[in-house]
Structure formats: structure tokens, C-alpha cells
Amino acid sequence: MKKGWIGVLGPLGLLALFGFAGVAPANAVPGSFSTITQVTGGLSSPIGVTNAGDGSGRLFVIEQCGRIRIWNGTALLSTPFLDVGSTGANLIACGGERGLLGLAFHPNYVTNGFFYVYYTRASDGDITVARYHVSANPNVADQASGLVLLTIDHTAQANHNGGQLAFGPDGYLYIGTGDGGGGGDPFENGQNINALLAKILRIDVNGDDFPTDSSRNYAIPPTNPFAGATAGADEVWAYGLRNPWRFSFDRLTGDLWIGDVGQSAWEEIDFQTAGAAGGRNYGWDCREGAHNYTDTNGDMNAGCPGPVPFTEPVMEYDHSLGCSVTGGFVFRNLPTHSLYGNYFFGDYCSGRIWRGVPGGGGTFTRTDYTTAAANITSFGQSETGRLYFTDVTGGTLQWLAPYTWADVGPNYFAWRYVEAVSGQGIIGGCGGDNFCPEGLISRGEMAVFLLLAKEGAAYLPPSCTTPMFADVPCSDPHAPWINELVRRGITAGCGGGNYCPGSSVTRSQMAVFLLTTLEGSGYSPPPCPPSTFSDVPSNSPFCPWIKEIAARGITAGCGSGQFCTENLVTRGQMSVFLSTNFRLSAP
What is the Cα 387 distance to its own chain's centre? Predict the structure, then answer.
């Protein structure tokens, strides 16, 4: 083969010379599978996990005694992001239900670097919400930047501290507080709209309505239900909650989900649709779940209003199934999965995990999902909507991992890329619930996959009226796609007037196909030398194309410094190539 011939033939001639036998798999409707996978161990009493929404993909794990740890996608970093418990600060009263309990990142964290923590103060156990700032090192916060926003008296009892922080779709910070501790709400905070305990509070962290009060560094949203009223605390959004340990907002709809820990009989999940007004009364301590409650002060205490104005839970379970609900999240990671749109929550004591399946009229059915060997303290969500939970006893972070194909689980190297191309309708299955990730890609299939990745799953090429190749009649379902590749100058076939639609594709050919489809037929990559891989000579016509896809991060080769030019492309590999080349969103 004469040196320099690629400059004469270009990608059309180059790709026309190669082809290998293969079989085109059929599309199939995917199944719905799931598993639990440990992300990391080595955590000390993990009780929360969240993301920063900054595009980094990192997870931030709360350790109860004052540290926030970072999982960067491959490792648990040894240096804490923040330590307000053991390194000089010693701000935290830790033990039992006390400690560093909540974490939320400002919606504009990328630009302002602010994040917020919820803890019980070392001196007296009082609830404290404070703001901190990241340092110049994105993996380390500025320990000295703490500014207390709000302090709530919680001296009398050590339990029922609440602890959840979350920014709502309205940009306000929501804060979950317990009833002050003890059994049966002895301080009667549940139905007291003037108290800040037993509530979900809502504040504006971007303002300060109390400039002379150093303990109140926030503003009151004007649409809070009691804002400016003669009765009711300005900060209150919802009341009648015993210990709303974990709540969340549906990232798609903005709906609010609350897991409220019960007394001795019932655990409940409460719900508020996005955009609904505040001021809802969820019943405690007149109600436990959807049942009348007899408290420590006697029968349904005199402070219980009637007729009952309570917002009843959408789901509940009794203590034969557990003892302490851990609120979770709506699954929004894989849109084509059967579990998409289900609300996942669990129980701390039994390790049971349920899903709330939406029904008609705003109803939800509690359905068994699995039982984990864990004390589930919190659920969390990644930037892409993956669901995680923390196990305080095992010191682990676990991934609740639904997946679409029986033969492509989360541990498969190309799992997220397979989910991307199948979820976006670019590559279907091979029959039944399988994807056949090790199956080979034919040239006919490749035409379809390339154009769908480039144009979107709704794209249809012009119909075939005149065959362009002797071996691709218009009756071939791939014919319109193959003809369109030729019209776009992506390929001229395999030689002799044929396209070889059943032949497989090599990795070197794929480099040219990817870049030419993305950039257009007039594109030429930067020349070689030098070569990026030991098995790709600098004088190879494929060298510039292979070098360029490596430079773009589309592939790192096949290992040991090689590219494996003549290896055939599998469906799993194709999923990676398409996702990275065309920047398809991967879960």
C-alpha cells in the first residue's frame, strides 16, 4: 500500500476497501432490572449524601460527627471537604440523633461557592443552620467562612432534631425540624404555628430581613403562609410534623416528598404538589400517619382542631415492617426504565426499601422493592439522577442501580453508554431482554446508528427509490440509511459497486466514520506523526483519524498503548464511541 494514499482517496476511498462478515441483531423491547452496588466503604457514621450541581460528578457524604467527605467518582478522598467536628472547630454535639445532619449546595454554587449545613451545637444541642464557602481548592471548603443563619433552641431533649436541608425549585432553602424530642410531643410544638420546631421552614438565603440580628441572616419569602401575619412564625412552610428526617424535591416536577418518622405505631410519607401554597398541617401530634394519636397529655389533646383539616399521608406502614422511615427520592435517571417516576424510600431498622408507584388522582401505592442488609440513614441523588443510600452501621455508600438490559448490568464497562444509546433510541436490543454487548456491528447497522446519533432518534432519511449499491436493494431496511451516508460523503461502499451491509466494522474504520459523520465530508484531522499508539504506524492512512479520536477522549485504545486497529467493533464499544463522539447524555 503506497504511502500517502489517504490524501488521494480521502475517507470515501479509505472506507470502501474494508469489510468483514457479521450478522445484524434485531431490535427488542428492553426489560427492567435493578441491583444494589457498593460505591465505597471506609465512612464513619454516614448519614447523608448529595451532589453540588457543579458538573463535577462528585458526591458529598455527611459523617455524623462533623466531616463531609468527597467521592470523586473513583475514590473517597482522604481530606474532608469540611470538618467542623474534630479539627479545631468542635462545633458539633455528636451522638444519638445529634451531629452534622444536613447539607445543601446553593443553586448558584458554581459562581458563588456557597453551601449550607445543619448541625446540633456542641454547647447546648441547639439546631444551627450555617453557610460556608468553598476555598480555592474545589475539594476543600474554607473552614473559617462559617456564617450562622439560624439557631433554634433544642436544649431540653437530644432527639427529634430533624436535619434535612434542600433548595426547592423556587430557589428558597427548606429546613426540616423535629418536634423538640421526648415522646408524644411533650412541648406541643406540632400544632403550634408560632414554634419553629416540628416544621418545614422556608427561608431566602439571598437576603437579610434582620440586619441588626446576628442570629438571623436570611430573608422571609413573601409567599410563606404566615409571613407578616399576626399568628404564625414567618419562616414556617408546613407544620404538624414529628421528625421530617429526610425530604426531597422531584427534580422533574418540583413536587415535595417528606418522610416523617412516627412515634410507636406508624411511619408516613407526605406529599405536596409543586406550586401548591404552604401552610399544610400534616397532623402531628393529633395524628400518627393516617390515624388518631393519643399523646402523653391524654386523648387527642385539646389543641387538635376539628373537623380534621389535616393533610393525610400518601403512604404509610406500621411497625411490623420497620421502626423509622427514611425519606428518599423520585427516580429520574433512566427515562425508559419501568421504575422511572417511582418514589424510593426505606426504613432504618429493617433495611426494607419500597417504591411509591403513582396511580390516578395523585395516589401512590407502596410496593416492596428489596431489603438491604443496612441501617439506611439517608438517600441521595447524583447530578444525573442516580439514587444512593448511606448505611450508618456498615459505613458504606450504596448505589441503588436500576438497569435496562439483562446482559448489561452496572458493572459492565460500557453500562452507562449502553443506557445512553438505548435510552435515546439509537441502538435497540438484540432480542428479549438482552442487548448483546459483545455482538458485532454490521455496516448496515452502522449507517443507522451514525445518523441517529448525529440527528436524533426521530430522524428518518429519505426513502430509497434507486439503489446505490448492487448488494443493497431498496427492499433492504438499511437501504435509506446507507444511501444517506453516501449522499453525505461518509462512505463510498466496500468496492466493486457494493456496500457489504452484513460485513463488520473495524476499530480503525470506526475512527473515520465517527469523525466524518460529526464534522462533514470535507473534514481532515491533523496529520501524523507522531502516532498515539504503538500499533498504529505514523504512515498509516488511519493514523490521523485514530490520533484525533484519542485526542478528543473518544477512546483510550485497547490497552498497553495499543489501539487494536483490526479488531471488530462490538455493540458495547459502539455505544461508547457514539456517546462520546456525539456527546450523548449518559446516566
Answer: 6
